[in-house]
Specification:
Layout lengths: L6 H5 L13 E8 L3 H12 L4 E4 L15 E2 L7 H8 L1 H12 L1 H11 L11 E4 L3 H16 L5 E3 L1 H8 L7 E4 L3 E2 L2 H14 L3 E3 L4 E7 L2 E6 L2 E10 L17 E10 L4 H4 L8 E4 L5 E5 L5 E6 L7 H15 L8 E11 L6 E6 L2 E5 L6 H17 L18 H18 L6
Parallel strand pairs: 1-2, 1-11, 2-8, 4-13, 11-18
Antiparallel strand pairs: 3-7, 4-6, 5-6, 9-10, 10-11, 12-15, 12-16, 13-14, 14-15, 17-18
Pfam family, one: DAO
Protein name: FAD dependent oxidoreductase domain-containing protein
Organism: Puniceibacterium antarcticum
């Protein structure tokens, strides 16, 4: 395998011209982190007439927003009843309803702003990797439909038709969902924000923030920005910022492997409907096709870390078992990203000062929720309405044993990929 790194950087057609912060400035709102949340917030706040400065330590979508699978799913990883158990009936039902509409918000923004991100709203498939996985999908089907989700439960035969693989016991189809080129989507949000007057500065790491009587002072690139409101949207790629409350989450790695474009003959029977897929295994895996016809295989685990050889060998076995005709097709691209996981798998909003919020913890479901929460953050800051967020705002939040749990998840992924030859396990 020759690896050219992140496929999404190679195939991104959205261009955004920015410059590092080079002088002191002021704005109504400063946003730290140019991922789905930060760029969505910048766009919404600019639409509302606020002056916005968006700061990114690296490049737009450098973190998980530019490295993920690109599945635009509704809801969270948790089944609806689990959300209600964690949050209570009122708050849980509200979150389920709002995030159920999340994919449409994404695709509407793609259309409104002409974002060139390979958007395909043909649904996603949650695949049963084993009989137990099928029982899980049946449970999710009942719960989802009870909450108004138009889900369809597919048997093994229909799953084979839709995936081109005989390895699955069934699937759950969500027609609201779809796929995008995630880095291009995020870049398109940033471009649209710029066109509405936002100032976007890449290569502008924030070193410190200060609370003042009139708002906030943000230190970046040796310069100061004065602002009335502040949004910390760094999620799993947060670096220490003096004066800012550090978001607490467990870091989980997710890696992907992509082929060159398949031939028309090869691609005819591989995901003919272009649904993005992920499975029910504890160590989750994913498959999808991009617009050029590349097959992308993903799984939990760090393919750039000590277990890289194990994860890479597993990806080759998985490709061979799912699609024997593609057994000899090489992977051209290989990359990984980080997920911010909270213990209850529900996103968190922390108010760490007057008109200052940190949003984090999408637990692997970042595209639609990031768009929703970023939009809500802009409303909260522009209108002084904390209740605009889809979840109750906290004053503090902490996670115990973060490093230990991160190592545990990676160890589990390594052991699973080393010992289990199953296609989606």
């Amino acid at each position: 395998m020759t690896s050219d790194g992140n496929l999404w950087r190679h195939s991104c057609r959205e261009e955004v011209e920015t410059h590092p912060l080079a002088a002191d400035a002021s704005a109504d709102i400063v946003i730290i982190g140019a991922g789905f949340t930060g760029c969505s917030a910048a766009l919404e706040a600019s639409q509302r007439g606020a002056s916005v400065i968006l700061l990114e330590a690296n490049t737009i979508a450098h973190g998980g927003s530019g490295r993920n699978v690109g599945l635009v799913n509704a809801g969270l990883w948790l089944p609806p009843d689990d959300v209600l158990a964690q949050m209570g009936e009122a708050d849980g039902s509200r979150l389920i309803d709002i995030l159920g509409k999340g994919p449409q918000m994404v695709f509407d923004r793609v259309k409104t702003y002409g974002i060139d991100c390979e958007a395909t709203q043909s649904g996603t498939l949650h695949l049963a990797h084993a009989p137990a996985g099928m029982r899980d999908l049946e449970n999710r089907f009942r719960q989802g439909n009870r909450h108004g989700a138009p889900l369809q439960l597919l048997d093994a035969k229909e799953s084979r038709t839709r995936t081109g693989s005989a390895q699955f016991h069934g699937a759950l189809l969500d027609p609201r969902a779809g796929t995008i080129q995630p880095l291009a989507y995020c870049s398109g949000l940033a471009r649209a924000s710029l066109n509405l007057g936002a100032r976007v500065h890449e290569k502008s790491p924030v070193s410190a923030i200060e609370s003042t009587a009139g708002g906030w002072i943000v230190h970046a690139n040796g310069h100061k920005i004065r602002a009335g409101g502040l949004l910390l949207a760094t999620n799993a790629y947060h670096e220490k910022i003096a004066g800012a409350q550090t978001p607490h989450y467990v870091t989980v790695s997710y890696s992907q492997f992509a082929t060159e474009p398949l031939s028309p003959e090869q691609i005819a029977t591989v995901l003919p409907g272009q649904e993005g897929c992920w499975d029910t295994a504890l160590v989750m895996s994913s498959i999808r096709i991009d617009k050029a016809g590349r097959l992308i295989v993903g799984a939990m685990g760090d393919a750039m870390g000590p277990g890289a050889m194990i994860h890479t060998a597993w990806a080759r076995r998985k490709l061979r078992q799912l699609y024997p005709a593609l057994a000899d097709v090489p992977f051209r691209y290989q990359w990984r990203g980080r997920i911010a996981m909270t213990r209850d798998h529900i996103p968190k909003v922390v108010a760490f000062g007057p008109s200052a919020y940190a949003v984090f913890g999408y637990s692997g479901r970042g595209i639609a929720p990031g768009t929703v929460f970023g939009t809500a953050a802009a409303e909260a800051l522009c209108e002084n309405r904390p209740d605009a967020f889809p979840v109750p705002v906290r004053q503090t939040y902490s996670e115990r044993f973060k490093g230990v749990l991160s190592a545990y998840y990676e160890f589990g992924a390594v052991m699973t990929h080393a010992l289990r030859p199953g296609p989606m396990g």
